[in-house]
């Protein structure tokens, strides 16, 4: 991207969840479900004297994408770190369940999940975890009919149980600014020590879990610039392709064969992962 | 294999229910085919492996290899019964301390390995395999998502050694900037934050809670009770056509989940 393009680009990262959803749907087609005016807020945050948000950090936007019925589940990373509580989690799972039902009834409906999330909201712990299990179940159900596409742009990244949900998606679209991993760097440092993971080493974090590395190692599918048009074009193209013949989450044989070759005496460098998965998953 | 691993509840219950004739030569993921209610079933447990090649996965954690092996154990079952009218049951014996926390794990995509496992269980359920999760020890966080949380029915033993949670107590306290004491006090008034099985049951996620004399050293009566309950769960699943997780939405503390789904249903088609 040159300076001119940079100045004219429509940043996806700078948009909030609601505007990200709007930017992906056909102009004028977006309708929000269980929106702020329905006032379904987290019953658990208030009990802990934590300020709630009227959409609980998740926007359910229904509309069309290139004319096909599409629901966008957009997680607002700015609210409680994009964490999954009971209400936000039920919004995502419930919408995916309805999309699968529509497909079964002969109405093709597809879904995009915008992952900006640290995973389970610890203040709602077991209900967040349960909701994530339900989201995962619904993704696996829906992806039998139409692709379920995950997008992670930045700046929160995609972590915790929601990274497992991302791993179930038919396709993943990432920007360079995105990070995708199970355990956050700080948690690993806390659990395993500084020698295992230095959470302040940003180059290490992006090198191992950033969007460019995840795409180069076949753990994600399309790398895009932070540009709304590019994100939309990538998503539309993947929907057009239809569900993959085999989902990434089904490739246990390829992954196990690759992992059998890992020298676990060493900590891997990003290039080691590229060499291994470039061969084993290509 | 010359070290003597600590006997885990998972290993104990797997052997009590299914014997020890493992299908695969895998140290941490134990897969045993045995009879349940007079027909073949597959039992799967993750157990500690002191010699694990991946040093962060030696205490019963679900790591990279374990995640993909769970996926294989379940996908094999789906494949074997693809054309069979009767899909064999899968019993996940759950005692998982956590997912593996490490740099190697993140580098090679542990999230994807756990997705392999979770996805396989969900596919098995959707394909018509009765899937039962039997919680006999810890059921923590990502490890539980990978091993058992996709079950048609969840059964838990009520015992001090049995806990379900999104994160270990000490870690959760650090991450939420609270002390362990403050966390425990909060859990008294916030059921989803509690660690005990009684609070967890109030969320409506469990089909049955059993009270054995011991989860760690079960008596013959305990094993008989669990076996009878597994058989009852099979009958319960067979009697219900739904293959989704909707049986979990009725808990007294899940009113908001129900409200959200009700609103979504009414708003989904309308204009």
Automatic annotation (TrEMBL), chain A:
The Gene Ontology biological process annotation of the record reads:
carbohydrate metabolic process; fatty acid biosynthetic process; malonyl-CoA biosynthetic process
**Superkingdom of source:** Bacteria
Molecular function via GO: acetyl-CoA carboxylase activity; carboxy-lyase activity; transferase activity
The record's annotation in InterPro entries points to: AcCoA_carboxyl_beta, ClpP/crotonase-like_dom_sf, COA_CT_N, Malonate_beta
Q: Name one Pfam family in it.
A: Carboxyl_trans
Q: Which UniProt keywords apply?
A: Transferase
Question: Is Transferase there in the keyword field?
Answer: yes
Which residue range or ranges hold the CoA carboxyltransferase N-terminal domain? Answer: 1-254
Give the PANTHER family listed for this entry. ACETYL-COENZYME A CARBOXYLASE CARBOXYL TRANSFERASE SUBUNIT BETA, CHLOROPLASTIC (PTHR42995), MALONATE DECARBOXYLASE BETA SUBUNIT (PTHR42995:SF1)
Protein name listed in UniProt: Biotin-independent malonate decarboxylase subunit beta
Q: Please tell me the species this chain comes from.
A: Pseudoduganella lutea
UniProtKB/TrEMBL annotation, chain B:
Asked if the record carries the keyword Lyase, the reply is yes
Q: Name one Pfam family in it.
A: MdcE
Q: What's a Gene Ontology MF term here? A: lyase activity
Q: This protein's superkingdom?
A: Bacteria
Q: Which GO terms describe its biological process?
A: carbohydrate metabolic process
Listed InterPro entries = ClpP/crotonase-like_dom_sf, Malonate_gamma
- Per UniProt, the enzyme's principal EC class comes to lyase
Q: Secretion signal: which residues?
A: none
TM segment ranges: none
Record's keyword annotation contains Protein biosynthesis? no
Supply the alphabetized keyword list: Lyase
Q: Give the EC number.
A: 4.1.1.88
Name of the molecule in the record: Biotin-independent malonate decarboxylase subunit gamma
Q: Which organism is it from?
A: Pseudoduganella lutea
Gene name as annotated: mdcE
């Amino acid at each position: 991207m040159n300076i001119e393009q940079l100045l004219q680009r429509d940043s996806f990262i700078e948009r909030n969840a609601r505007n990200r959803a709007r930017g992906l749907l056909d102009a004028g087609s977006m309708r929000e479900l269980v929106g702020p005016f329905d006032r379904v807020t987290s019953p658990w945050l208030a009990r802990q004297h934590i300020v709630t948000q009227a959409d609980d950090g998740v926007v359910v936007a229904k509309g069309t994408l290139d004319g096909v019925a599409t629901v966008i589940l957009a997680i607002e990373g700015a609210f409680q770190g994009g964490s999954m509580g009971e209400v936000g989690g039920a919004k995502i799972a419930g919408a995916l369940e309805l999309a699968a039902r529509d497909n079964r009834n002969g109405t093709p409906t597809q879904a995009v999940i915008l992952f900006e999330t640290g995973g389970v909201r610890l203040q709602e712990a077991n209900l967040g975890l349960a909701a994530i299990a339900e989201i995962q179940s619904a993704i696996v159900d829906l992806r039998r009919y139409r692709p379920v596409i995950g997008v992670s742009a930045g700046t929160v990244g995609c972590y915790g149980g929601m990274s497992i949900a991302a791993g179930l998606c038919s396709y993943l679209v990432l920007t360079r600014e995105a990070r995708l991993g199970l355990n956050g760097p700080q948690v690993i440092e806390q659990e395993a020590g500084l020698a295992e993971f230095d959470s302040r080493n940003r180059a290490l974090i992006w090198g191992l879990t950033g969007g460019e590395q995840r795409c180069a190692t076949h753990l994600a599918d399309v790398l895009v610039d932070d540009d709304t048009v590019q994100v939309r074009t990538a998503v539309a193209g993947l929907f057009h392709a239809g569900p993959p013949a085999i989902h990434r989450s089904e490739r246990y044989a390829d992954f196990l064969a690759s992992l059998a070759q890992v020298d676990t005496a060493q900590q891997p460098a990003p290039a080691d992962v590229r060499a291994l998965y470039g061969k084993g998953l290509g | 294999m010359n070290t003597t691993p600590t006997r885990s509840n998972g290993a104990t219950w797997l052997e009590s229910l299914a014997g020890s004739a493992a299908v695969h030569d895998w140290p941490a993921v134990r897969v045993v085919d045995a009879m349940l209610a007079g027909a073949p079933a597959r039992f799967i447990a993750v157990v500690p492996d002191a010699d694990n090649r991946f040093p962060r996965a030696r205490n019963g954690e679900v790591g990279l290899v374990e995640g993909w092996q769970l996926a294989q154990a379940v996908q094999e079952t789906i494949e074997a019964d693809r054309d069979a009218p009767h899909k064999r049951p899968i019993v996940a014996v759950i005692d998982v301390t956590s997912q593996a926390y490490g740099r190697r794990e993140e580098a090679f995509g542990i999230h994807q390995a756990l997705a392999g496992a979770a996805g396989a269980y969900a596919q098995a359920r959707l394909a018509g395999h009765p899937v039962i999760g039997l919680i006999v020890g810890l059921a923590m966080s990502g490890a539980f998502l990978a091993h058992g949380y996709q079950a048609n029915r969840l059964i838990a033993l009520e015992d001090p050694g049995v806990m379900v949670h999104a994160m270990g107590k000490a870690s959760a306290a650090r991450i939420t900037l609270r002390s362990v004491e403050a966390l425990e006090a909060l859990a008294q008034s916030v059921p989803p934050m509690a660690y005990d099985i009684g609070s967890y049951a109030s969320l409506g996620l469990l089909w049955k809670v059993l009270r054995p004399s011991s989860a760690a050293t079960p008596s013959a009566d305990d094993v008989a009770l669990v076996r009878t309950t597994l058989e009852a769960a099979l009958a319960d699943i067979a009697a219900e056509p739904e293959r989704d997780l909707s049986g979990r939405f009725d808990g007294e503390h899940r009113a908001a989940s129900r409200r959200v789904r009700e609103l979504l249903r009414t708003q989904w088609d309308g204009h």
